[in-house]
Design brief:
With 129 residues, this protein is mainly α. The chain has 5 helices and 2 strands.
Length: 129
């Protein structure tokens, strides 16, 4: 049996932990993820063509871009309203009726990386600045 410790930023850990069903232990879920990766059932986000999400600029069935494709609007809103919490940003910029992914996925895969690329930083008990 191998034991391993790792470091992860608190916001990412908390967000991930909330996705694990309460009836499942975090240890069990981590083991499942490791086994899925070992078995080739996990795709790397950095590998071209492997992202299962929609590409930026991909029109929706109605031909209109959704907020999913416009994380820069969330960045602009966060700058204007800094410091802004994740909850505030999601409430102001995420439109559940127009996006085909849940708000957590929208935040993790699109908005948070856009905030970081724009040079904004998360400060605990303050928010994104």
């Amino acid at each position: 049996m191998v034991q391993y410790q790792f470091r992860i930023d608190e916001e990412t850990w908390t967000e991930w932990k909330r996705t694990v069903p309460r009836e499942k232990s975090l240890e069990t879920r981590i083991i499942e993820l490791i086994e899925a990766d070992r078995d080739g059932r996990v795709r790397d986000a950095d590998t071209p063509g492997e992202d299962t999400g929609l590409d930026d600029g991909t029109p929706t069935p109605e031909g209109v871009k959704t907020p999913l494709h416009e994380p820069e609007k969330a960045v602009a809103w966060a700058r204007e309203n800094a410091p802004a919490s994740r909850k505030d940003i999601v409430e102001a910029c995420y439109d559940a009726d127009a996006v085909d992914v849940n708000s957590d996925t929208w935040w993790r895969k699109r908005t948070r990386p856009a905030l970081e690329e724009a040079g904004m930083e998360f400060t605990r008990n303050r928010g994104w600045e």
